[in-house]
Amino acid sequence: xxxxxxxxxxxxxxxxxxxxxxxxxxxxxxxxxxxxxxxxxxxxxxxxxxxxxxxxxxxxxxxxxxxxxxxxxxxxxxxxxxxxxxxxxxxxxxxxxxxxxxxxxxxxxxxxxxxxxxxxxxxxxxxxxxxxxxxxxxxxxxxxxxxxxxxxxxxxxxxxxxxxxxxxxxxxxxxxxxxxxxxxxxxxxxxxxxxxxxxxxxxxxxxxxxxxxxxxxxxxxxxxxxxxxxxxxxxxxxxxxxxxxxxxxxxxxxxxxxxxxxxxxxxxxxxxxxxxxxxxxxxxxxxxxxxxxxxxxxxxxxxxxxxxxxxxxxxxxxxxxxxxxxxxxxxxxxxxxxxxxxxxxxxxxxx
Length: 351
Prior knowledge:
It is a single chain. By secondary structure, this protein is α/β, with parallel strands linked by helices. It has two domains: about 5-90, Udp-n-acetylmuramoylalanyl-d-glutamate--2,6- Diaminopimelate Ligase, Chain: A, domain 1; about 105-310, Hexapeptide repeat proteins (UDP N-Acetylglucosamine Acyltransferase, domain 1, 3 Solenoid), CATH 2.160.10. Helix content is about 15%, strand content about 25%. Strands 10-13-16-19-24-27-30-33-36-38-39 form an eleven-stranded mixed sheet, with helices on one face. β38 and β39 form a beta hairpin. It is flat, with a radius of gyration of 29 Å.
């Protein structure tokens, strides 16, 4: 498929600087792009690549300057968002599993399915399940009894959704993820650990995406809640009774302990660990590998273990890096002090 730069500009908005009749036949990253492809630059750190890219057109910000090159620009307020719209022209996000209900799928009693649902090979749907329109269930997915799944939701292979879980519209859950497993609850009595029944549920609201091999445990009594628009990376653990606010980002290998409340628009970077029964305020950022042991105020950034304000942690790290030098200085001062004490001890003392 080929499109002129003029047609692309009409699709995504923006102004053309250069030949509007430039023909585009594909998309690529700025380092890999070749003649006939369109690319983008959204971060100022990569503007130098404009001079070396092989792309036939570049989506840039209104402020991006030229440095003598003649490659046509498509100026857009948000180049990244515009580029995503262009990507859909050549790489549409289509689901590849066969449409309809596969003969090997196992469907329980009193299952309600909306229009254009897909159940892949060897998938299992329990009793009293409700599936909205255009739900796509890939092969080997297991859906427990009394689960509700909204329209346009996709469950990739080997996803397990346990009983009584509720999943909203347009949710994407990637392979190997487990939703609604028992929370880790045990009562120590006389040296033995007695299981606390986990009888709550999990609620995932609209437009959430959950990566591969994520576990989201059911609540002890009420619900573990993931609010709308939140995106969860691979290998994340979310324990029982956790609440995650709207449009938050949880990066790979984060662990969130039970009954913790995460606000709206929060970012938890890779391998961050959060203890239980605390709150992380709206808009807060928890840096990679931070260990959070107490509440985090809204719109602050914390780092380190135990997590503290990012600026303070940077100063602490700067001092830590100088510890070998500081240690040498201390040793020199100790030697000079010892020599001074010897001199003072040797002096005659007046009675």
